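Backbone shapes recur. Consider a single case.
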Amino acid sequence: EYKWLSVFVGVVFVAMLAYNTQDLILEPFGGHVFGMTPGESTALGGKMHAGALMGMIVVFVTGLILRSVLMTRVFMIGGCIGSGLCLLALGYGGTQGTGWPLEPNVMAMGFCNGVFAVSAIAMMMGLASEGSAAREGTRMGSFGAAQSMGFALGAAFGAFALDVLRAVTGLLAQSYATVLAFEGVLFLLAAVLAWRAIAVTLPGRQPSALAIPGE
């Protein structure tokens, strides 16, 4: 039990660290690198959240229709991989300047974030009831603590890393690109850990609860 629990806690922490690393730098990124006005860069954050909402809706509706354990796993890993690739593309776009399709890139990133978020919640709720009885609260507490720490550290790390890189290199666009690319790598690492969490099972049991709630 502790093996799969520790692996999935790692998934939650790394994914939330990656998810929130861009929180404080996305809008300045649009302004500094792409010359957006404050209003335009604020709207950029709105486009990301709109994409996230669409991703959440897709996962939720698919779960209601198919009620598939496999689909939840696919969404979980696919959301991490998609988010990672979108962030790597965003980092690359930062080195290309205004010719890069920034808004579609950000919306795609938000969509993948939304897919990951809903499927991860579904897996957390399912895994909380796996294993020994009367430990659901401990498991959910572990997941919640990992989520909170990853979320908080992500915001602080993104801004801090950007400032350090700018001070050391003096290269604005490349500093943004490096932080965003690192965030993408974290998401890809979370995908690997998610695959590991799915592969690890309790002795004599399959992780049957890894599905959209209501199955």
Summary: The longest helix spans residues 136-169.
